[in-house]
Amino acid sequence: MNWEKLYNMQQELDNYIADNHELEGKDLYHERHLAFLVELGELANETRCFKFWSKKAPSEREVILAEYVDGIHFLLSIGLEKGYRYDSGEAVGTENERTKQFNHVFIVAAAFNQHPTEEGYVQLFEEFIHLGKLLGFNEKDIYNAYLEKNEINYERQDQGY
């Protein structure tokens, strides 16, 4: 995966948003972190992996992938703000069950928020990548979905989203 290309694309999008919303130079770390957590929750909701009380099927794969990529957008954006980078290593996550891995990503995200170190950022990114693998996504899926969602994000900005 060419993560540097995605970081560059995310920087362009972040700059575009900052220009459109007069946010130049503003520290948005806490907003970005909360947005990541919200996207993580929305992703869990679409997978329905924790909804033991429901017989309703998970959302379609493409819907789940789109939610997953929303999380990637915010992780990239957080890395840019903090000056941190994730570059593809073999992301070996902690859990091998979806619900447990979602919980683990929340825990790692909370720890990172308390102590936003580069090591914590890389760990959070790796755990999120592992979650994507558990959801059935490979690097090509993630890359292509990111490109598609990036275009949508520009369109939304142009429409006053």
Average pLDDT score: 92
Count of runs of 4 or more consecutive helical residues: 6
The SSE string, one letter per element, is HHHHHH
The 3D shape can be described as globular
> Would you identify the regions where 5 or more consecutive residues have pLDDT less than 50?
none
Structural class: mainly alpha
Largest sheet: none
Task: Please give the number of β-strands.
Answer: 0
Account of the protein in words:
- It is a single chain.
- The chain is 70% helix and 0% strand.
- It is mostly helical and 161 residues long.
- α4 (98-114) runs antiparallel to α5 (118-134).
- The mean pLDDT is 92.
Brief characterization of the structure:
With 161 residues, this protein is an all-alpha fold.
Task: Please give a handful of descriptors for the protein shown.
6 helices, 0% strand, 161 residues, mainly alpha, single chain
Topology at a glance:
Elements: H1 3-20, H2 29-47, H3 61-82, H4 98-114, H5 118-134, H6 139-158
Helix pairs in contact: 1-3, 1-6, 2-3, 2-4, 3-5, 3-6, 4-5
